[in-house]
Amino acid sequence: MRENVLSIKERIATAAARSGRAPRDVMLVGVSKFQPLDSLYMALDCGITVFGENRAQERESKAASWTRESAVWHMIGHLQRNKAKRAAELFDCIESVDSLQLASTLDRIMAETRLKVAPYPVMIEVNTSGEESKYGVEPSRFLELVEEISRDCRRLAIDGLMTIGPLEGGERGARESFALLRSLAAEAREKLGLPMRHLSMGMSGDFEIAIEEGSTLVRIGTGIFGARHG
Ligand SMILES: *Cc1c(COP(=O)(O)O)cnc(C)c1O
Fold it and tell me: What domain count does the chain have?
């Protein structure tokens, strides 16, 4: 795993340099879904401090038996509203907000439970590829959604945008998808004055392309942990 992490970090640095940025401008999230706790501990020892999980339930069972120093947890999978409270307790950021209903639920939870003192960080997931299997708001409805969330959900901080690159379409398809996310963030900055700090895009198979297109956060699973168990 140490070699995997080193190699990913080198590739991040090289891709960042190609886009005129420093390696520290790209955050590395280790996607630990379906991985046993021992692998997460090993990843901690290799310097991974932020983990991504796609199910609240799996995160909960890991939290229950966690014995190591605390880490930062990002929710990267589709979140149902009835699991929003649990997710807000278990995660430091929810990257997969894609509806006003979910955002409003999270906002209300923050009001009721005072879970967090500061606004709770979320990202807006956009379906940039148009693939039907994917969650995320459609690009044409993105600006409206962000405007509504920033207006109505004052206890949430929109920390950026997230997308999953297309399954099909090769490098060109991936690049188009990532460039679209970048341009949507620029539009939200310009029209709504929102900071849009993060572009969460890029996984094991396409993170270098994503970084060239402006990614500030890559979500790497198999590239760090190897094949998933289950
Ligand atoms: C599983 C997953 C990843 C990691 O995928 P790899 O190809 O294993 O790097 C990244 N983002 C999301 C949303 C995922 O569900």
Answer: 1
